[in-house]
Amino acid sequence: MRAMVQISYGSPEVVVLQEIATPSPGNKEILIRVHAAKVGPSDCAFRKGDPFMIKLLYGLSRPKFAIGGTELAGEVEAVGKEVKHFKAGDRVLGMSAKNFGAYAEYKCLSEESPLAVIPDNITYEEAVGVCDGGATALTFLRDQAKLRKGQKVLINGASGAVGIYAVQLAKYYGAEVTGVCSGGNESIVRKAGADFVIDYTREDFTKADKAYDIVFDAVGKRTFSACKRVLTAKGIYLTTTPRLSILFQMIRTSLFKGKRAVFAAAGLMQNKANLTFLMELANNGTLSAVIDRRYPLERLPDAHNYVETERKKGNVIIQF
Ligand SMILES: NC(=O)c1ccc[n+]([C@@H]2O[C@H](COP(=O)([O-])OP(=O)(O)OC[C@H]3O[C@@H](n4cnc5c(N)ncnc54)[C@H](OP(=O)(O)O)[C@@H]3O)[C@@H](O)[C@H]2O)c1
């Protein structure tokens, strides 16, 4: 099979196309013929081995897993002898956060992995798009912040993958949503359902008078200290990026009843129920995929270069 293989950490060019053996499913595994995968900032971070924590976890001098990519969508090609819930021909969405491997034509996943059947009217690209960002936004808003109807929510970075699904999910849960993006992205953020849009190149939301129950910094560009001013008395600041400061602030604010700061490794907290729920929301039109660019598998380095501009809107998809 064709796979994009990475033999060292480094620039996008360390990832090269190779012909390697197609894997066979173990007894409890399914073999998926991959049709779509995604590239986001975390994939670039793993490729670079930066932050250093990645090298500590996944290999100091070279990545333990030579094929990157976590979210994938495709068709079940074969199943192991003990697989109960999937059969050849099923269209599935899956996540492989433990050993990656989405940038290859075939991938084996344990039946117990985060996996969901894709509804008939959702394409592979849409499914993987909704999962990239949607799963993270769901974990932050529903599980960490316990978002309730009528709350005021601000999403910073509303045009990114996490942000655009955070806007849609916050509306679904009945919040009043303010999206923060640059002026050129206002239309996609409004289309996603934002009630208000702030252009961060013209206005700093942390200096305005409006207070929010939840400030979700989906792109990790604003600190808890800066956002505290615009949180309600028991408001929550959520961030997708782990800094040392946020870890201290999380511990400190959890000891008191006031404003709280929260980081979560949402990518590692996914399960079948979340993916199935996201597919239901996509199927009934609550969530729509926002796909910015598509690249064929062999142009994965170009996709990485684009994602690293930090300008992508919604998802960047790898096609097979
Ligand atoms: N904790 C977790 O489990 C988890 C899971 C997934 C992702 N993440 C992290 O979450 C972050 C976001 O991921 P993503 O895929 O959503 O990112 P992304 O799509 O690559 O973000 C790009 C978007 O960010 C916007 N942006 C850039 N600078 C901005 C600023 N200063 N203020 C507001 N918006 C700005 C850009 O809009 P403009 O062009 O308008 O500026 C662009 O649309 C990444 O750091 C990623 O590693 C964490």
Please give a structural write-up.
GO terms for molecular function: oxidoreductase activity. Residues 10-318 form the Enoyl reductase (ER) domain. This protein is of the alpha/beta class. It has two domains: 2-117 and 290-319, Quinone Oxidoreductase, Chain A, domain 1 (Alpha-Beta Complex); 132-267, Rossmann fold (3-Layer(aba) Sandwich). The chain is 28% helix and 28% strand. It has nine helices and 15 strands. The protein has helices spanning 41-48, 53-58, 124-144, 161-172, 186-191, 224-227, 244-254, 272-283, 300-307, and strands at residues 2-6, 15-19, 29-39, 71-79, 91-95, 106-110, 115-117, 152-156, 176-181, 196-199, 212-217, 231-239, 260-263, 291-296, 315-319. Strands 3, 4, 5, 6, 7, 14 and 15 form a seven-stranded mixed sheet that branches. The protein has a six-stranded parallel sheet with strand order 10-9-8-11-12-13. Helix 3 packs across helix 8 (272-283). The longest helix is centred in the middle third of the chain and has 21 residues, at 124-144. 47% of the residues are buried. The model has no long low-confidence stretch (mean pLDDT 97). Bound molecules: NADP nicotinamide-adenine-dinucleotide phosphate. NADP nicotinamide-adenine-dinucleotide phosphate (NAP) is lined by residues 40-42, 133, 136, 156-157, 159-163, 180-182, 185, 200, 218-221, 240-241, 265-267, 307, 310-313.
